[in-house]
Amino acid sequence: MGPVLVGTIREVAIAEQFVNPYTFVPFSPSVPVRRAPNGHSGRDAASLLSGRLLVTVEARTPLLIRGFGTVEDPRPPSRPDGAGGRESIIPGSSLHGAVRSLHEALTGSCLRVFDSDFVPQYRQNADAEQVGRLRLAVVAHAPELEPGQPQPAPTLRLCEPKNPDGYRLDQDDLVALHRDGGLRSGDRLHIVWAEDGEVASVRTDPAGDWVVFLSDAGTRQASRPYRAQVRRLTEETIEIDQAAWDRFMELVEGADDLRTARLREVGADQRFTEVAHTYKPQGARERRVVVGSRHLVRRSVIEGQPLWVRLSADGTRVELVQLAMVWRTHGKSAAGQRIPPGFAPCEDPDDLCPSCRLFGSADTRGEPGEDGEARQRSYRGHVRFDDAVAAASVTVREVRLPPMSAPRPGAGQHYLETAGWAGDGGVPALREWGSQADKGKQPRRLRGRKFYWHTTVPNGLLPTRGQARAHHDDNAMITSARVYAIKSRFTATITFTDLDELALGSLIVALQPHRALGEKALIHIGGGKPLGYGSSRITLDSAGSWVTTARARYTGTPASPLDEPALQRLADLFAEHSETAVVREETWPLLSAALELDRVPAKLVWYPPGDTDNKSKNRDRGFPYWQQTSGLELPDQTATRKGYPLQPLPAVDAPNQALDIVFETSHQPLRRNKRGVDRR
Length: 680
Fold this sequence. Notes:
Layout: E1 4-6, E2 17-18, E3 22-25, H1 38-41, E4 49-59, E5 78-80, E6 86-90, H2 92-107, E7 121-123, H3 128-132, E8 135-141, E9 155-159, E10 168-169, H4 171-181, E11 188-193, E12 199-204, E13 210-213, E14 228-239, H5 242-252, H6 260-266, E15 272-279, E16 287-295, E17 306-311, E18 318-322, E19 328-330, H7 354-359, E20 383-385, E21 388-390, E22 396-401, H8 412-415, E23 449-452, E24 479-484, E25 489-499, H9 501-511, H10 514-517, E26 523-524, E27 535-549, H11 550-555, E28 560-561, H12 564-576, H13 581-586, H14 588-595, H15 623-628, E29 632-633, E30 640-644, E31 659-660, E32 668-674
Parallel strand pairs: 1-22
Antiparallel strand pairs: 2-31, 3-23, 4-25, 4-27, 5-6, 6-21, 7-19, 8-9, 8-17, 9-14, 10-14, 11-12, 11-13, 13-14, 15-16, 17-18, 20-25, 21-25, 22-24, 26-27, 27-28, 29-30, 30-32
């Protein structure tokens, strides 16, 4: 391994536009061509091809290979070199995954890594009628936790029903209570109310009749003071319907408090966190107001914790449980219902798509056979990737990676087809899975396979967007990493057995997409793709690559070298084969656009930002963009419909991929300006 260099970031301001880091290549209009693999059929076994490919991976942008070392020492992967030292590598599994992913798109194969049951979660709309049906309750008894088991439903003690605009404590009262002895959500209070409905006096009291509820202040308007709901506790207890508790626990799993970085920041055992409201009344300076502590979202509840519930019509059962008056809800129609027929992962080892025939198919269902016994229905495949070993001493650069959030498939303006709905709005927002935009014969489909843009690193060192900035210093989501420098080279051996010429040609094109998709086509290897890492070019060494057949082995015929003409002939055979025709004509031009180096300007590529200045904290604040483009219609008593018009991500082959930065949200006319009248 070579020297470790520390990179520095150049802080620059950019135009008032950005390019999203990812795009989508639509699914092929043809269903994956499935059949039995060669290893099962035995046909033409004597003429099937076996051999090896000697490849070299060259980094066109720095390579980030994760999963090795420790947080304190995030070294890249290496292995003993046989001489007492260690040699830098790209694990064969990383290379295998990258090549397979591209092969799936090239051949129109199944979605091997795909969660068919996925349904996103959304913040609820503040529906006055629904909120008005909620009652505050307090956990009276929380069952003990069994290791590895979900918590059973607790027993609740109900508070009196009350209109949401009823009993509330003002910000000054909350600040005083917290200052005097600390205030937590769920604390009991003694409150004296004046005749005008205002609070005459309030103090904490373990035997008090009133319960206070504190929630996160993040979505509250800065111009208004923080106010907290309070309710009078009753003696009435109630059980939670099991189905309602199960739904509640599912929604808990999607909470921000349970994200890995958040747990690392506050600790998994911590139950409370400070509630701080950014308060800026008109004409006054902004100030930070701490009103108390709220319960952190955890996979269990504790006695005394307040919850919002909705009772059944007869008042005997709890049919909905929430952690806030406006909380979270599931979308509708799972991911498996949003892909074209035939693209779900292969299940039958005797009926596989091109990629599963070549690389293998894993049985992830775990379903028993008719006799109840476990069945393993996997297929090993015909290709093995060895580790790619550094061709010489490689330079390793140290980098602090910026915070990265989880993918947002629920953002339908990016992930779903939006034909006919762009510029319009509805309730819930049209971006949501299950909105009125899904009310056709079938729900809107996912836009396709996800790819990240390839962009040159202008300074030849580290991508600007791939480095943490000064204001990230106190962010627990910052991680340190070491990356292989640009121009690092690694060699690997790929062994293949019992392939026909079509399959071998498809493997060659997946390794070298420029043979079929244009000279600028690259392949992504490793992690950090949205941050500008991993763009690579693979070359094939003819001198170290060869092919033979079973017949040749038995007759003693020497293996044939895979020289450049032979490699290109196999690649052309794959490209011109009738089995590839529809994918080639419909998908390859779009895939070529996604893989083309510098198709978009590197300086514009960023997740939806909130500012043009790289040094600004608002640079990473994407909330205004996601809201402004969501397709939400706002309440309006006039004929003019206003809201946040749905704005889809540009198509992968659109000449201009730039989107406007949203600094703050603003209501806009929707496409059908008057109800039922199309503005187009």
